[in-house]
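User: quick one, fold this
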Amino acid sequence: MKDKIIIGYDLGNIYSQISYCTYDSDVPETLSVVTGGENYNIPTMLCKRQGVNQWFYGKDAIKHADMEDGFLVQDLLLKARSGEKVVIEDEEFDPVALLTLFIKRSLTLLTTISQSACIDALMVTCEVLDSTMVDILNRVMTGLALKTKNVCFQGYVESFYFYTLYQPEELWMRQVLVCDYVTDYIKIYRLECNRRTTPVVAFVDEEEFPFIQSAELPQEENLRKNISEQMDSRFLSVLNEVCEGRIISSAYLIGEGFRDEWMKESLRYLCRGKRVFQGNNLYSKGACLGMKEKLFSSEKGKTHVFLGNEKLKANIGMKALRQGEDSYYALMDAGVSWFEAQCSLEFLLDEGNSFSLVITPLNGRDIKSAQVTLDGLPMRTGGASRLFLEMKMISENTIQLKVEDLGFGELFPSSHQKWTESFEVV
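Assistant:
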């Protein structure tokens, strides 16, 4: 297993990053675009050389574009989401195919750590993980044709959770902050655990605050000082709003905007009574650890469950009669990603033409029952209606059921009827 590695891939519209770990390590490393350095950001860009089918990625793409040697393609993620064709030299290119090419080329950086390294598992993380993004990533993975079935996706929020889960517990006994400085706003993620539940339920609140455009501070001393003081004052105001009335154990400052030394009063305030860390590879490391947790659940992973926007937030099952006794049959467990939540089974309907699902939210709301009525189902007695049930989530909070009448042998042949129904989970 020493040559098999787990990859955490942070796919951003401006920059991307790649972290990795082996199966016997809980401390991921991040690939640098410069051998021996700590330059982790890979510009999410391609450049097509003029007149030939030759493509460059990342910093090489920028270099060839600056040399006026090719056509630079930026915003690969946004272009893939819009679905709009990219036109270069009168030729159309599929934006998802270009995104696939970028990821494939960037993964060649793995040769800098080992010529024999084999990707055994891959977790892709991105800021927004909605149905559009899931579809794009599935198409990308098909195009990559990796020699592994261990491929998963998660959002930045969940990567933050898994990164935190693998840190010393004193760093997340209370709430944890991530302050992500992205272009002209700062996004705050605040993680909190409800330790009164079993398992412990972790959740993250998100807030966005307009901010000064992140760019290199000017060299002129007075102008630099003036802008720095404005930024410092504004960030201090944001922190006051976020931290007021809360106990924060630790905080992480990530993003290119925090590189320049403009934080004075705001950093002094943030450091009171809490540990503060600065870096920019938290998401890729969290993706790596999230993949490892899926493959080999840790003790903390067994006692904690994360309920983010991409997660199923309720246990779903049905009451059943097994060996003559009433029991509960689990169908879907809370905490799985909505786009991975699915199940199928055959069961016998004891009587009538309806059955109920039991929905148990993990957010403290009351248990509820959802009745499914099969209009037109032939009336049969004594459990002679055999049904096939297929369930899957079609959005963050919507579940779809498909039911088919299978009949019951020669005595009660199938009516070949099918029913489809959707409803909100919580």
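User: anything notable?
Assistant: The chain has a mean pLDDT of 91.
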